């Protein structure tokens, strides 16, 4: 085992790097005097990190940490190191493996720090430029070899000791691990004769799949959901040989390239996590040929992406990181990249998910709601859908738009709707996340007391027309047109009627309004109505001979029935006007005696008259 420290050499820029906003192909900056580029690696999950292998007075391995903004030479053959580099790869966790030869036989170099330092290990067999290579991490990796008679797949679980399984009598030029290899131990090796070999135990045993009709330089890819779908996709560099799909475990391949130009050569194939199939055409770019073709799960037609590629460009091999595609242009010895902005769902902006009570109610329906989303870049048309179910199983409204907005109308009041959008041109993107909003309710129409009425009772009933979708109602009552202060506020009214719990003031003008409350929504307040309470009945003045004591005024209060707190309105009943008592006169005592004597004499006379009349009758 040997340990190397590599001196890195910076290379100046020759052109600007591709920005995230670009949606066409663009040439990435390259190292000066790079030589002929023959291979590249793009580690997943490490944005901006690229490795290039090139021939220039020996073989050189370059690294960029900013998508080509600057390059560092991390290894070159010669001296006491490797005399030749056969293959290199980068594992999912960023380990760089370089297989090559020295004067003492085949070896490989391993770096865990992006090529700053390398450690050398012995290999049991030599690789060549057509060998397959794949790595899970710094210890678990695989490669193929061919000794002229038999091909083998080599494996190691510690990075030091290797074992092999004999496969066939033809070379195996392609080797890939499944997306879930750490869990399912699945890998596939492919040969130039169209045969594919499957292992589900980490390379210990292999079984032959149904032979394909492909010949030549084979490329293939697992579907991102292979653990469920079991799909693999394959193609070759032979003109017109097509693009094929197989469900592992089934006996046949299905051709899926209908619509591609005849004579198309395939130099690379990748499948994104969203199920988009990307294929690099090895044909020179022209008006109707070459470039990148892709197919999404949402559109079964193949779409072409050639914008930014000059005529004659020849794409060879393909690497994918997220929605960013990399390829080598062998005709111009350059690295090109394509940012597929439509590979990801578009971003929704408005109305915010869960927005309550939005829109304008008129003529029995709700309108004035604008759906708004963001153009990810490159989209020229969009599609939108609205449903009243979260799973979007029943579409109530849908349409297309060339701008990033659509106006809705004729929605039902008080209903929760769900919506989504996607790009529709030049390619179809996945659907966005599903957002929701709830429409406003209709405004209540007040009926009783009628506007301008004079009510004869001080606890009058209040009524209004029911509103579709309303669960409860709120009512506000005040003696002021601006509802300040509030006399009564009632919430949670279960029907379309209400009566105050205590008497209102007589001879007073009142104003009132109502709004409807629904599930996660409400209506605007109704138009304000006004009425007046009747005057109190007239009072009768008491007789002067029966004086009544003056009493303290009585107080009446209309109390609020719910929050918000109300201001108590007090009034004083009118006070009656009562006449004062009359004073008695003073009489002399002698006069009193005379009057008493006269009274007695009168009594005696009356008695004698009665007695005389009685005797005459006898």
TrEMBL record:
It comes from Dehalogenimonas formicexedens. Residues 1-20 form the signal peptide. It comes from the Bacteria. This is Fibronectin type-III domain-containing protein. The chain crosses the membrane at residues 587-610. Coiled coil: none annotated. Residues 533-576 are annotated as: Disordered. Keywords: Membrane, Signal, Transmembrane, Transmembrane helix. InterPro entries: Ig-like_fold, WD40/YVTN_repeat-like_dom_sf. Residues 533-575 have a biased composition (Low complexity).
